[in-house]
């Protein structure tokens, strides 16, 4: 691969065809940081409205740093992977406390920000500051693995070292930010996982996979593990006025989010125990009033939903009672919304 020629072809193609995405209209390192965190594991079309709402509510790093965590999570609600939002929030507080609100130009300082790894640091450095720093995400990895006919599997250390090294070489030239975005754009639109459109590809003549007719077998992708099945019990607790009790979740699955009280396991005995454990009392259904299935990246959840009528308790830092129309102001997961729907439907049936 001739880096200068590949760079030239990619930049010319990107200048002609780049999509007009909201974060591409900005060189503000904070806005680029937000967009890059949102785009991890999430599709561009899904991110756009979230990004716009988030930046309207938190237009600069000071606004985000001084916000309450619940407010931040509420603006992330539905986007999933809530740990990203909490780390972004902590990162903003770090930037305000340590760097006077300026996202650092220095890569070592950027890498010290909570939630910022090599990828995000490189994205901010190259796109916001036009520094010659590489980025390798899934799209870039696929493009480079094909262009260079890399035979070792993605995710293996030897492959990652090679990919980051090649991406670093490509970034050593004019407009590294545009170059990195061109690589990502090529992977997203042309060099797609299935049926890449090689006839339209600006780097076709530099691509070994194309020359060797191995486009279909590269990159080498490790076999995906099936998500682990997990059984849970949830208690949909509603007081006499129809307000719903929510608890701050424990554990890593939804750590820190407000949701219906849940516990790993199954059966009415566990629902009784869970109800007591969170500090609620009322009339608990003898059996599950509904079931919810929900798939996360590594977990396939099956949830038995029990209902607790006339629920009473004492609100505290990790337990609160809310009207349904106040839920939007909290960061609650899509799963919690599903459980609330199942619980509400069962309440209607029992009326
Ligand atoms: Fe990907 Fe085909 Fe372009 Fe090679 S020629 S980089 S396989 S789209």
**Strand-pairing-aware structural class:** alpha+beta
Please tally the β strands and state the result.
Answer: 8
What ions, cofactors and ligands are bound?
A: iron/sulfur cluster
The ordered string of helix (H) and strand (E) elements is HHHHHHHHHHHHEEEEHEEEEH
What are the segments in which pLDDT stays under 50 over at least 5 consecutive residues? none
Radius of gyration: 24 Å
The separation of the N and C termini measures 70 Å
Strand count, sense and closure of the main sheet? 5 strands, mixed
Number of helices: 14
SS strand fraction: 5-15%
**Residue share in helices?**
40-55%
Overall form:
elongated
Mean pLDDT figure: 93
Topology:
Layout (H helix, E strand, L loop, with lengths): L2 H15 L11 H11 L4 H14 L3 H5 L3 H6 L7 H18 L7 H5 L6 H12 L8 H10 L9 H15 L4 H14 L18 H4 L16 E11 L5 E5 L9 E2 L2 E3 L3 H11 L1 E5 L5 E6 L3 E15 L5 E4 L11 H17 L1
Bound molecules: iron/sulfur cluster (SF4).
Iron/sulfur cluster binds next to helix 9 and helix 12.
Brief overview:
With 351 residues, this protein is an alpha+beta fold.
What would your notes on this structure say?
The structure is a single chain. By secondary structure, the protein is α+β, with helices and mostly antiparallel strands. The protein is about 45% helix and about 15% strand. The chain is built from 14 helices and eight strands. Strands 1, 4, 5, 6 and 7 form a five-stranded mixed sheet that branches. Strands 3-2-8 form a three-stranded antiparallel sheet, with no helix packed on it. Strand 6 and strand 7 (about 300-315) form a beta hairpin. Helix 1 crosses helix 11 (about 175-190), helix 8 packs across helix 11 (about 175-190) and helix 9 (about 140-145) crosses helix 11. The longest helix has 18 residues, at about 80-100. It is elongated, with a radius of gyration of 24 Å.
